[in-house]
Amino acid sequence: MRARIVFVVVGILLGLLATQAGEAAQRIASSASLAGQPLPLSAVAAQKSQQNPGLRAGTAGALLQANATDQKGSHAVMDTTQLVCLSQELAAYQSMDSIANNLANVSTPGFKREAPQFQEYVDQMQPSEGEKGTQAVSFVQQTGLIRDLGAGPIEITNAPFDVAIKGQGYFVVQTANGPRYTRDGHFTLDATGRIVTDAGDPVQGQGGDISIATTDGDIHIAADGTVSGLNGQIGQLNIVDFADDRALVRQGSTLFSTTQTPQAATDAEVQQGMIEGANVQPVVEISNMIEVMRSYQAMMNLSESQANSELQTLDKLSTIQS
Amino acid sequence: MRALSIAATGMAAQQTNVEVIANNLANMNTTGYKSQIAEFEDLLYQNVEQPGAQSSDANTLLPSGIQLGAGVRTAAVARVTTQGALQSTTNPYDLAIQGGGYFRVTLPDGTFAFTRSGNFALSPTGEIVTQDGNPVAPGISVPSNATSVQVNAQGQVLAQIPGQTALQTLGQLELDTFPNPAGLTATGKNLFIQNAASGAPQAGVPGSTGYGSIQQGYLESSNVDPVAAITSLITAQRAYEMNSKVITAASDMLQQTANMGQG
Fold this sequence. Notes:
The complex is a heterodimer of chains A (322) and B (263). Chain A is of the alpha+beta class and 322 residues long. Chain A is built from six helices and 19 strands. Chain A has helices at residues 2-18, 20-34, 41-51, 58-70, 80-104, 282-321; strands spanning 114-125, 135-147, 154-156, 163-167, 170-175, 178-182, 188-189, 195-196, 204-205, 208-209, 220-221, 226-229, 232-236, 239-241, 249-250, 255-257, 263-264, 268-272, 274-276. In chain A, helix 4 (58-70) crosses helix 5 (80-104). In chain B, 22% of the residues lie in helices and 29% in strands. Chain B is built from two helices and 19 strands.
């Protein structure tokens, strides 16, 4: 991702050199506004939209445009380099947030890590006067958070109602808001002996709730989810799977909801006394974090040097004029 | 910046984790202690783009959407009610339960508490009491002239009285089970009290199904596995450290933003 951004930005810089002459007039207009004759805001906006028609890179783009048109002061017109830098800086913030969420949930059973996915938003800049062809400017746009569905490490807890699913599948939990699905197999009993989650919602068997009597003694849960005690079979855990796992909606508490119809899982094996940990790999997260920080830093440096060179240009031009 | 508060929830969760592990290790030699595990769950998500929302009017759907997480919270501190190892003491009033039951203890205010810790003794009046002097249900007194006291696996308390050939039955110990023993409220001093989560106690005699049998001269040691506890401690400490790294990184980024345009 970073490599692409740097590449794009280098391209823009080269492009800027080519259009330097064309932009000079605009710079002078900016310097006029600096000299105490502010252009009407609408004029600035008009100028801006002429330079960058149709700049809207998702939410980030809307924000960028707002910045570009509303900003008063030395950068009355923010140039494209700054806007591209800003889109990358926002992307870095989003990456950092998802890394933080992954690391915060490193001990959450059944948690699946997420990574933001970014896309190039290409904007065709209109050529400057006297130039031919168009220039493409690429912004960064977040298009999704992709859930890593890889299995988490299996931790042995020896608790009789801790169950891990090996393979594809989800437990079904009946909540007040309808059925929810989870990979977090940390269950317990409630006051009436039903198998429930930490929140007290009953875990569903093939025929509804599974209730354990005190006379059932030690409970054994078989690989196919069959729950049995001293008095024989009590029930069977309902393990389901979906056509599209990634479309499941997170509800917090490691629960998922969906409008898809659950199917009986075919590739699932239940393991008693174990729990599936989060599939967050700290090494990966920390190295991603360093990468995000570095690319953020690089963008800040670039945007700063661009601002400096703009100021220098203004200084020189105003000196020549006077 | 969201990353700061997310990492803070992570640090708070790992701190709870360390506290629970510390309590387990501190009670490694507490009779009848059951180890606890901190359980975590992810917080609610902010739906920026709902997965499955339409991305065009041609019925194309967003495959994954954008759901921003808010961190982690402690869902429960669960008690692992597995059997602890039995440790031989040869003391006749040390009783261990092998199975799921609990001894019932009458507290001074007349209410009941429940315990797995069977290190009992005799009161000045000869009654079998806990180390705090609370009588063990249903209240059995040992005559002062008894030469030996035996408790069998079914919880019958028998004594050898001088001048008698047969053992004299002094009483029958009772145990209680719960629909959800892990839900009992711990009150300290190895005692538990019932609540809405545990369900009502069901009294029965040792040896019947689900109640477990009594082993005289043994104590049930805690079920804390020190190796597992230390491993979890290391994991928790590392996770805490990583979350603090996120805070440092996020704070660095914010600092760079704040310093923008000053160099």
